[in-house]
């Protein structure tokens, strides 16, 4: 990676719900063009961190900066307009709408129409703009290889295809930073391989910076540039995939290995 300014800077972020501390003084940065993964046991605070980045949660303490701008107090829609897109651990599609319309929803932040210029706008460039947005959505559909279901009702699709449609909707915003919350959860091996390929292509060919939560350690270690590990809301490791895998604290917290007191007794998985 080059020594340019981070696209995402998390500084001393803590998040408290009542008496429960979901995140404690977490700091990290993501460089433009990185594929950065966050891993950790269930309840480690991974989704809470993504929610702090996307704006669903406001940190109790600390700051979130995107492209050099402090966005800690901005709402999700405002962050989306700046170029942050995301998918969710639990599918958030409109089940009664078809695939194309679900993906078109991802473009609504880019529409120029509002209640003041609406009538004039519709007499002018509305149709042209809608065609441009629809054309881009069709490009996303082709890229994610879901042309055969473009008119299908989202709620009737298999789980793996619905996950792909949700990714398409996030990509439709054409974000600079895309947050992926367990994009491969519940998928079979073939579906995971396809999803991993799409994520790599989004990163390398479409130029999107990716921050991903994923439980499949094989996928994480294969496609990530760097990995951060959370445990009980605290960062316990960060670095290259091989470095993280070799970290004794990670082995204990995430992989369930014994954290022996002497190096002689440590075993590599």
From TrEMBL:
Check the record and name the CDD domains matching this protein: ABC_Mj1267_LivG_branched (cd03219)
SMART domains, per this entry?
AAA
Q: Which domain of life is it from?
A: Bacteria
Q: Does the keyword Nucleotide-binding apply?
A: yes
InterPro entries from the xrefs? AAA+_ATPase, ABC_AA/LPS_Transport, ABC_transporter-like_ATP-bd, BCA_ABC_TP_C, P-loop_NTPase
User: In this protein, which residues make up the domain named ABC transporter?
Assistant: 8-257
Question: Which UniProt keywords are listed?
Answer: ATP-binding, Nucleotide-binding, Transport
UniProt GO MF annotations: ATP binding
Q: Quick check: keyword Transport in the entry? A: yes
Identification of the protein by name: ABC transporter ATP-binding protein
What is the organism field in this record? Thalassospira indica
Source organism phylogeny: Bacteria, Pseudomonadati, Pseudomonadota, Alphaproteobacteria, Rhodospirillales
